[in-house]
Write a structure and sequence with these properties.
Largest sheet: 8 strands, mixed
Radius of gyration: 15 Å
Distance between the termini: 32 Å
Shape: globular
Number of helices: 4
Length: 163
């Protein structure tokens, strides 16, 4: 499997993939694929990686700018992460996330945030300890991972495409 930056020829497949990946999820509002397109259109899709296996696009991960009150450093938000339903739980999503996080760290980003299942994202080092808040979500699902030792504290705001 190869991981690379998205190309214009990937956009339609990313849309279909994201829609298919989130369709059966009980927490999905059905707009994830539109959010990716809005991030791209707004110039907020800062890092967009695809996984290619035997010539087929099998996974995608998006990273976009976020702001945290009181944190002047550059932080990015992770998500959505999409893998074709029949290929989920095979390590594709994990590989995309690890590669993306490594790229962000080497690019000098202070850290990464996300909203998600702490049981899944803990393996990558994410922590939901209440130092960040987002709307009325539980503390443990609003998670962060620092690359430079900065501990974020404040209210999290995502790019308009995700709000």
């Amino acid at each position: 499997m190869d991981i690379r930056a998205e190309t214009p020829g990937d956009i339609e497949t990313i849309y279909a993939l994201t829609k298919a990946a989130f369709e059966p999820m009980p927490y999905s509002d059905g707009t994830e694929q539109d959010c990716v397109n809005k991030l791209r259109a707004d110039g907020d899709l800062e890092l967009s990686l695809v996984a290619i296996d035997q010539g087929r696009l099998v996974g995608h991960v998006a990273f976009s700018p976020v702001s945290i009150t009181g944190a002047p450093q550059r932080w990015l938000g992770l998500g959505p992460v999409s893998v074709w339903p029949e290929l989920q739980k095979t390590g594709i999503g994990s590989s995309l996330i690890k590669t993306g996080l490594e790229m962000l760290k080497s690019d000098g980003v202070a850290g990464c945030v996300l909203i998600g299942d702490p049981n899944y994202y803990r393996r990558f080092g994410f922590l939901g300890d209440g130092s960040l808040s987002y709307r009325d979500l539980a503390d443990d699902v609003v998670q962060w991972l620092s690359f430079d030792g900065t501990r974020p504290k404040g209210v999290l705001t995502f790019s308009p495409g995700l709000e």
